[in-house]
Design a protein that fits this description.
alpha/beta; Rossmann fold; 5-stranded parallel β-sheet
Length: 160
């Protein structure tokens, strides 16, 4: 009665393969998907989630990522949060800013726009449709960023 010392992969080998598979799944195929950082005021989270869902339903080639934080801009954790956001912006091909009446007062959105531009990222701004919000955050005005209605076609054209 043998102990079966078969030549299968070790636990460490399996863990390494699993880690590689997870990393591959997290990394979008850059030839077919665009990783876009989405910047928005936390108060708009529900609307932004609906719009993200719409993009997925339309089989969009855009993958949105964000930090969806409520943390005050000048909190004790702000430097740590800015570092994490900057990392996501660096890994993105562009930044999309969701503009609403809440956006003008968001220090985070203003910082994310300025940091995206400093990092050489394309920045586009979108609104839900209908009337464009009358109040825009300073960075949108300062950099002359055009605000367009949120449509998949419009976003794809603006990102091209």
């Amino acid at each position: 009665m043998g102990s079966g010392g078969g030549g299968g992969p070790s636990r460490a080998d399996l863990q390494e393969l699993e880690d590689i598979a997870k990393k591959t799944l997290r990394e979008p195929d850059m030839e077919t998907r665009r990783n876009v950082f989405i910047s928005f005021a936390y108060d708009d989270l529900a609307e932004v989630n609906l719009l993200r869902g719409q993009a997925k339903n339309e089989n969009s080639d855009i993958e949105f990522n964000d930090w969806s934080l409520r943390e005050p801009f000048d909190s004790k954790r702000a430097d740590y949060i800015r570092s994490g956001i900057e990392d996501r912006i660096r890994k993105s091909s562009a930044t999309l800013v969701y503009v609403s009446e809440n956006t003008a007062s968001s220090k985070w959105v203003n910082w994310e726009i300025n940091r995206s531009i400093e990092l050489g990222k394309k920045v586009i701004a979108v609104h839900k449709g209908g009337a464009k919000p009358t109040q825009l955050c300073p960075a949108i005005k300062e950099h002359g960023i055009k605000v367009i209605p949120w449509t998949q076609d419009g976003i794809n054209k603006a990102l091209s």
